[in-house]
Amino acid sequence: MGNPTTITKDKIWTRDFIFVCISNFFIFAGFQMTLPTLPLFVNELGGSDQLIGLVVGIFTFSALLIRPWSGHVLETLGRRFVYLTGLIIFVLSVATYSFASSIIFLFLMRIVQGLGWGMSTTAVGTIATDMIPARRRGEGMGYFGLAGNLAMAFGPALGLVLVVTLDFSWTFMIAAFAGVAALIIASLIRYTPGEKATGPKKKWDIYEKSALVPALLLFFITMTFGGITSFLPLYAEQQHVSGIEWYFFVFAISLMIVRAFAGRLYDRKGHKAIFIPGALMILLAMIDLSFLENMWMLLSAALFFGIGFGAVQPALQAWAVQEAPKHRRGMANATFFSFFDLGVGSGAIFFGFIASWFGYSEIYLVAAGSVIISIFLYILLTRNPSKQTRQKEAVS
Fold first, then answer.
1. DSSP at 176
2. Domains, the chain
3. In contact, 242 and 352? CB cutoff 8 Å
4. What is the distance between the alpha carbons of residues 52 and 75, in angstroms, rounded to a whole number?
5. pLDDT of residue 209
């Protein structure tokens, strides 16, 4: 039998970790409800494909700008301040969508939402990292990610149903109420202060260098997200393919199932056992979508994408945090999610022009190329075997 002290020390499911997961669920639920509905709202307001891409993409760039600052403030003013402030900004901005009557106003509020989203997600990822034992970080981050995945299981579908049965205003207001639930639960968490940095402070400290490799790989993976969140509902409608709400459900369920064991595999084998197989599944999803003809192709793409992204994203996040010094976890998460935002935002804007020039199906062929680039970069950047050895030593 194991040492009782060790078992207690390695416990994942504490009171505060459960609260973190529940709070993360609600903030993602509010966010996911807006993902498939905002492009439809912009379209109703008379926006073009380029404008849809810009409205979706600008959100991620404002989140990108706030994350380095958030990473610093996490280590100075504390986790609680950053998380609660970010949630308040998120709630207020999403609520204002209910009153938007012009694309310009919506565009400005998307910038504000990005600030709240960047602060809250950087903070909650760091808070979860603080609570998870180092020896079970891959597993713990997988469980933490399940909260967001569960929100994906019904959030987009609920948003689409609410738009049809009610209207856009009520849909956005209900999404804001989900953010309020996240805020209430977040206020109950007991926050642990991060370790302070030692030594001189760098003047231009806007990233954590140990997180750059997994973050760069994530950038090319999440470009595919920009094409899906911005244009898939419109693409399916153009192709007369029903079941778009089921796409998000199948995606989320497959992602949840994979994350239940992918984190443990990462803890035992490292990222080499996960990244390339997961990226290949995402590649299959993009190819599938580029030839979309019926609902079964749509749902199979959701399955492939859920399996691939469910394996790759938590593995890359655990990798990014694992190699960072303890006092730099906040900045490591900030760096990781900055590249996440940059990938989604760049994809949304870039694919808006692709859709306008060539059509929706070409979006996913280009997205497949982005996944191929990530695979080649992974092979190139991890050729040094000592890096994998250091990672396993850090985990153990």
1. H
2. 13-193+207-395 (1.20.1250.20)
3. no
4. 36
5. 72
| Residue whose pair of structure tokens reads 């750059």 in the numeric block | 212
* Token reading at 245: 């709400």
Residue 207 to residue 191: CA distance in whole angstroms: 23
Q: What type of residue sits at position 365?
A: L
DSSP assignments along 310-331, one per residue: HHHHHHHHHHHHHTS-GGGHHH
Please state, in angstroms and rounded to a whole number, the distance separating the CA atoms of residues 74 and 57.
Answer: 25
- Our measurement of the distance from residue 165's CA atom to the centroid of its chain's CA atoms, rounded to an integer in Å, reads 28
Q: How many CB atoms lie within 10 A of CB 297?
A: 15
pLDDT of residue 384: 64
Distances 248 to 79, 229, 306, 372, 382 between C-alpha atoms, Å: 31, 10, 9, 24, 33
* Mean pLDDT for back-to-back runs of 10 residues, the chain (396 residues): 50 88 92 84 81 77 79 79 93 91 88 90 85 77 77 80 89 94 93 55 57 87 79 85 83 80 73 87 93 92 91 81 67 78 80 84 91 92 59 43
Count Cβ atoms within 10 A of the Cβ of residue 1 and give its class: 0-12 exposed, 13-18 middle, 19 or more buried.
exposed
